[in-house]
Design a protein that fits this description.
Elements lengths: L5 E8 L4 E3 H7 L5 H8 L3 E3 L7 H15 L9 E5 L10 H8 L7 E5 L5 H14 L6 E7 L10 H6 L3 E8 L4 E10 L7 E2 L15 E2 L5 E2 L5 E2 L1 H23 L6 E6 L4 H10 L21 H11 L5 E9 L3 E9 L1
Parallel strand pairs: 4-5, 4-6, 13-14
Antiparallel strand pairs: 1-7, 1-8, 2-3, 6-7, 8-15, 9-12, 10-11, 14-15
Length: 334
């Protein structure tokens, strides 16, 4: 008998340190608070402390999950962590988290390196583990400290990205049944959002910092994003991804009660909403006070939407970005 997979609970954690638009304008006086808010749609973002890691934040999100939803951690039998800023090259941060949370040593655990589409990929893996009978109670976490990758003079990326973590319990019953998936990759654009140095391809820093014509730092030793290329990729793949998912799910746009897209920035997601003619009332946005938290944007948004009693009927999730990668799934909410 095939077991169905559900999201039972979601919690999240944000670092204490907050960087407001007003603070950024003090550093970059050529910008204004109004310009940042209007274009990016973000008023403030949380930034991990110097010694605070993705693993630390994931643990705090998981502890909140257990406490807020009265979950017995002894029931957890698998740990999945999505991060692009692991605590170490090795071992997997999920192994450390298993120990720090005091979970059973019979838990499976592994990390996977994905960004903006990471939560949907995690749901796909968790669903497979449950439906195959390998696991029953999966702790799916997303955690990112992108600000540790960003040069302090990089005003563009510093206005966009916030640090944060989420924790979800995926099991055999819950408020949202996990439905069909569409997953895709275009690795030809791998260098459009990249931190080149530090890993095995280029272990040593290159110290090749230059400034572009707009005065923005460009360096192999820090995060680089080609915003135009990411925008073009997203505009191309997201509409067809949504169309394919609806066909798989035997639904139309009218059958979807709520759309929750990766909270990239205000301009991008509003463009996508208008491009696909999605009603504003059916399009959930939650980024003003948290920023773009990469793989955590969708679970954070889902958590807030649930608090607002917005998760009913069919809820479509769509992630897209670094990789270049994209993913979508349909939740059937009670």
């Amino acid at each position: 008998m095939l077991r169905m997979a559900y999201i039972k609970a979601i919690s999240y954690y944000l670092p204490k340190n907050v960087v407001t638009n007003e603070q950024l304008v003090e550093e970059f006086p050529e910008w204004s608070v109004e310009k940042i808010a209007k274009k990016i749609g973000i008023n403030q973002r949380h930034v991990a402390a110097e010694g605070e890691t993705a693993g630390d934040m994931a643990c705090r999100a998981a502890e909140r999950l257990f406490e807020e939803h009265d979950i017995d951690k002894a029931d957890i039998d698998f740990v999945l962590l999505c991060t692009q800023s692991p605590d170490y090259f090795l071992p997997s941060t999920s192994c450390i988290i298993q120990h720090q949370l005091g979970l059973s040593t019979k838990c499976g655990a592994f990390d996977f390196n994905l960004g903006c589409s990471g939560y949907e990929y995690g749901l796909a893996v968790a669903k497979g583990l449950i439906e195959s009978g390998i696991s029953k109670n999966i702790l799916l976490m997303t955690a990112e400290t992108y600000n540790k990758h960003i040069h302090l003079k990089d005003k563009g990326n510093r206005t966009i990205f916030g640090d944060g973590a989420s924790a979800s319990l995926i099991t055999t019953e819950g408020f949202a049944e996990i439905g069909d998936f569409v997953l895709g990759t275009d690795g030809s654009g791998y260098d459009k959002l990249i931190h080149k140095s530090g890993a095995m391809r280029q272990y040593q820093p290159l110290n090749d910092l230059v400034y572009d014509e707009d005065g923005n730092p460009v360096s192999s030793d820090f995060l680089y994003m080609d915003g135009r290329a990411i925008f073009d990729f997203t505009s191309d793949v997201v509409p067809s991804m949504i169309e394919e998912l609806l066909a798989k799910s035997r639904m139309s746009m009218d059958d979807v009660a709520l759309f929750v897209f990766h909270q990239a920035n205000k301009y991008m997601i509003n463009y996508l909403r208008k491009l696909m003619e999605i009603d504003k009332d059916k399009f959930y946005v939650f980024m003003e006070n948290v920023g773009n938290t990469v793989s955590s944007t969708i679970p954070i948004a889902l958590c807030e939407a649930q608090k607002e009693d917005r998760l009913h009927g069919n809820v479509l999730l769509a992630g897209f970005g670094v990789g270049l990668s994209y993913a979508a799934t349909m939740l059937k909410c009670k």
